[in-house]
Amino acid sequence: MKENLVKTVPSSSRRWPAVVALSGLIAAGLLTGGVISQTSYFWGDGFAKPCVRTKSQAPLIDASSSDGKRFRASGRLFSGPGAGTQCTATLVSAPHPVASSRALVLTNGHCVRDTLKTNEVVVGEAAPQGWTFTPAYYHDNVTEHRTFAVERVAYATMKDTDIAVLELRATYGDLAKVKVTPRTVSADKPVSGQALRAAHAPVIGVDPGAQFLRLSTCRAKASAVATHEYTWLWKDTTRTDCLGISGGSSGGVVTTEDGDRLVALLNTVATPGYLGCGLGRPCEGTATGLVVPRDDTVYAVPVDRVASCLDPTGLRLDKRGCRLDPGQQVDVVFSGRETQSQTPGGPARWDAHVSPAATSQQKYAAFKTGPFGVVDCTDPVGYSRPQPLPPAGLDYTDVLPTGDRLHVLCAAGGPNAESETWENSFQYPAYAFARVDNASPTVPPKLDIAEYEDSYRVRPEFLLWEITFYEIKYGPRATTDCDDGDGYAPYRRVPISLSKAEAPWTVCLIGYDNANNATSATAIPVPSTGVRSSRSVLRLLTLGGLPAPSR
Is 34 contained in some domain? Predict the structure, then answer.
């Protein structure tokens, strides 16, 4: 922060709306490994520092060790040459599987598609061509690696949890021929304080020749945590202190300390370098509001729901007692907006459109709202009386609560006006959410300044997720007053060149978050201390293998 250079800008100079569209942002928190996953940029829209992991790696597992024998069912899931996404997956089954049954592997829902929507459930979808699974994926048995084709997505969702069950073209008998037997999925959940182990195959920050299964030892720091990241709401997650977790670790099995019981899957991490809550920075919903976790906090999702749906022949969603969401609730379309409680158009409102699911006879709908992490959408208490739900759907536009919280809209569809008969409807309700945020960004604007032969190249730094949009003006230092609201314009994510011959300059910045809360105006002198040469800027932009923009 630059002392004595921060001034208050008149409210008349603030422009509505100031919410930036996040095109080109690469997922960071989710532990999928890809060509550039786990390193985040605002590509082409100014400048954002990449988040490159430097923490120590978990030790590799030796194939002949006791852990190597215990985790042979785990290995590399590859999404094919097109997407190039890599995750970790594990062969699983109910006790005593039928040898001729198609083999199942367990991984994260976002390994199937990290674009899965808040309420989306995938059942029985053909896997894209080129998806493969390689079990016993150790560094010292490469000549023995055997790859098996993925035939079908038996189940995948990021609603409430982050789970996928994939069906291989091979059978359990085929896997047994290469000495790979399935793991039994535990009906138990991790509990706070429990010692855990995690087997996973990270790729981000790992040399290509060392991207094999590793073993992390860790502890559950909290259980039954409500976690929000980007468009997803998860409940019952486990907060852990697992280390050595990065892109490619997604879907890695989390077991009890003895390695025997498979109780969870790794799913996301609080990426260092990010601020607030957003993609790459999951936050926890509590009675007091959203809580930002510490850097490198790793979350895992329990697998007890999967255990409830397995039998010796495979995954059975119609099995008595199966608790996986069948994906038959109402469809909800909403923006997931971040907003101040008062907008230029009046009080902020919900913007959800609710319609019947194509596969269900839902003629009525009921609603309730509450803070994320507090409201229980599966509890019938608090829902409105059912109202008719026409085939074209209806809009839910009630005024949002004014408190700074992540608010959840619970939506349940049913066959009639008597909600007392809606047991199945309330078991798997659909959601919308909106975040009310009236607080200014917690950090001041920052400007990256690069020196060239005849000019200074300047561009504001986006500080995700506290500053996602800028207004800017600049001029001669002697005549430029950042306190004057006139002359500000939206920053269009194109670097600005300032002539050395006309220096010194003053660059004025106002930063905004996604709810359009503004910082005070910041005046930054150019030239300034800390100016980088053009060579150092090019080096920073190419970290992680991302090419520098053409000049």
Answer: no
Specify whether the backbone of 335 is left (phi greater than 0), alpha (psi in -120 to 50) or beta.
alpha
Residue with tokens 């729901």: 305
> Do residues 213 and 292 share a domain?
yes
CA–CA distance, 210 with 424 (Å, rounded to integer):
48
CA distance 338 to 405: 10
Rounded-to-integer distance, Cα 182 and Cα 104, Å? 8
The structure tokens listed for 400 are: 């949002």
User: Which of 436, 457, 481 delimits the end of a domain?
Assistant: 436
Does residue 460 share a domain with residue 419?
no
d(CA 131, CA 84): 10
Does residue 426 sit in the same domain as residue 466?
Answer: no
What is the Cα–Cα distance from 159 to 29, expressed in whole angstroms? 17
Residue 234: cis peptide before it, omega within 30 degrees of 0 = no
Question: Two tokens at 408?
Answer: 């959840």
Give the distance between the most distant pair of CA atoms in the chain: 81
User: Quick one: 426 and 446 in the same domain?
Assistant: no
Shared domain check, 209 and 119: yes
What's the number of domains the chain is made of? 3
List the CATH number of the domain containing 284: 2.40.10.10
Question: For 292-328, b where at least 16 C-beta lie within 10 A, e where not — what string?
Answer: bbeebbbbbbbbbbbbbbbbeebbebeeeebebbbbb
* Domain with 449 in it: 6-23+441-545
Map 157-194 to HEC letters.
Answer: ECCECCEEEEEEEEEHHHHHCCCCCCEEECCCCCCCCC
| Dist CA 48 CA 84 (whole Å) | 24
List the chain pLDDT tens, one digit each, 551 residues: 222 223 333 333 444 333 333 333 334 567 776 543 333 323 233 334 434 444 578 999 999 999 999 999 999 999 877 777 899 999 999 999 999 999 999 999 999 998 999 999 999 999 999 999 999 999 999 999 999 999 999 999 999 999 999 999 999 999 999 999 999 999 999 999 999 999 999 999 999 999 999 999 999 999 999 999 999 999 999 999 999 999 999 999 999 999 999 999 999 999 998 999 999 999 999 999 999 999 999 999 999 999 999 999 999 999 999 999 999 999 999 999 999 999 999 999 999 999 999 877 899 999 999 999 999 999 999 999 999 999 999 999 999 999 999 999 999 999 999 888 888 889 999 999 999 999 999 999 999 999 999 999 999 999 999 999 999 999 999 999 999 999 999 999 999 999 999 999 999 999 999 999 999 999 999 998 656 654 433 333 222 332 333 22
429 and 453 together in one domain: no
Same domain, 214 and 302: yes
Question: Which residue's entry shows tokens 């798997």?
Answer: 428
* pTM > 0.85: yes or no: yes
236: part of which helix (H) or strand (E)?
strand 232-240
